[in-house]
């Protein structure tokens, strides 16, 4: 039994490491793939993968992955000054998207509610992203300078919410892919069902 548990543990760790590398690369490439210059930065679709990283890998690994991939993109794009702030902001974005989604799924356990829950969670994560960059740029450029990027970040966040939720709506309902998403909500649902049966 110990060998079996050890094997499962190693398998889980290997899977997490592989997904960490995969989503870090996706966050980086997604950020670099479409880059429209803004006054104090650039528009990109990297947050689509930031949201997916949170939903697939949970609040810890998802946050670390989103932060690493996104700040690497800043460095490669010539915005190294932003890299530390980007790491923190994108990590919080991914973690917030996961935690809000999980809280709503535990409250409403119907699978038909999933897309709505992800949409609300994505809004929460992207709102944090917009406010986070605004606060950081206030330190760099003052409130007036930071306001110049506010609209661009809001549009980017809105676009990534739509794209991220649309993508997860397709992926989450594919049986071959669904297993890659965080099982915590499903596990909690299964646990509650078993507890109810035990009480009977």
Descriptive overview:
This protein has 200 residues and is mainly alpha-helical. The protein has one domain (27-188): Arp2/3 complex 21 kDa subunit ARPC3, CATH 1.10.1760.20. 83% of the residues lie in helices and 3% in strands. The protein has 6 helices and 2 strands; from the N terminus they run αββααααα. The protein has helices spanning 2-33, 46-76, 83-107, 114-171, 175-178, 184-199, and strands at 36-38, 41-43. A two-stranded antiparallel sheet has the order 1-2. Strand 1 and strand 2 (41-43) form a beta hairpin. Helix 1 (2-33) packs across helix 2 (46-76) and helix 3 (83-107) crosses helix 4.
Keywords:
mainly alpha, Arp2/3 complex 21 kDa subunit ARPC3, globular, 200 residues, 3% strand, disordered C terminus, 6 helices, two-stranded antiparallel sheet
Order of helices and strands: HEEHHHHH
| Radius of gyration, taken over Cα atoms and rounded to an integer in Å | 18 Å
Instruction: Give the CATH level 1 class.
Output: Mainly Alpha
Shape: globular
CATH architecture: Orthogonal Bundle
Number of domains: 1
Strand content: under 5%
Number of helices: 6
Mean pLDDT level? 84
Order of strands, widest sheet: 1-2
Helix content: over 70%
Count of distinct strands: 2
Give the structure's gist in a few sentences.
The chain is an all-alpha fold. It has helices spanning 2-33, 46-76, 83-107, 114-171, 175-178, 184-199, and strands spanning 36-38, 41-43.
